[in-house]
Amino acid sequence: MAWIGMFAFIGATVIQLIDFQFASLFREIDPASNYLMSYFIAAAGAGTAVMLLLGRFSSGTAYGWKLGGGYVLIGLSAAGLTFLRQAAMPVPVAVLMCGFLLGIGNGMFLITFNYALQKETPASMTGRIFGIQNTVLSAVLIAAPLLGGTLVQTLGARLTFTVAGCFLSAVGLAGIGWGHRFWSRSSSAASAASLVNLEERA
């Protein structure tokens, strides 16, 4: 459980770095086309909805593929947006595709992560584990957007999104490649206990 929590923390931090910076990116891509961001948000929502409807996809124990795959799709979408002008298709179509891809990745990760928390956490520790998760994610929601704004001002939106997308995809590939070593059922109870012990020492 501790490895899943760490994996989620890294991904959530990177995602929140860019989450509030999409407006800056779309202004760089095409300042005159204000509708592009609306297209992107709508497509992302549709992708997430599709994954929610396919909730059975999260059954099983292949967390590395599902959590890592979600990050790979989100990362590809974020990095892909920076190359819209080089796409061999109309920009609105490329925006819709990137948005839908991000939505699928987001839904894949959220469903699997919540499933893993409920399935792998020992009953006696469920409340404490969810409390730790909410505390950590709340801290990320406060700090990461501030850092993201600073990076956009310093590096520019395109470079920030490219680096963040590539890094997130790399983290996802690492989860796919090595996740089975850390996220087995046999180690879930021990990992949850160690996470609680760390909280008590803090």
TrEMBL record:
Tell me which stretches of the chain form a coiled coil.
none
Cellular component (GO) terms are: plasma membrane
Q: Name where it mostly resides.
A: membrane
Kindly give the membrane topology term recorded for this protein: Multi-pass membrane protein
Question: What SUPFAM superfamilies does this protein map onto?
Answer: MFS general substrate transporter (SSF103473)
Keyword Ribosomal protein on entry: no
- Superkingdom is Bacteria
Q: Which residues cross the membrane?
A: 36-55, 67-88, 94-117, 129-147, 159-178
Q: Which UniProt keywords apply?
A: Cell membrane, Membrane, Transmembrane, Transmembrane helix, Transport
Localization per record: Cell membrane
The answer to whether UniProt assigns keyword Cell membrane to this entry is: yes
Which Gene3D superfamilies is this protein grouped with?
A: MFS general substrate transporter like domains
Q: What is this protein called?
A: Major facilitator superfamily (MFS) profile domain-containing protein
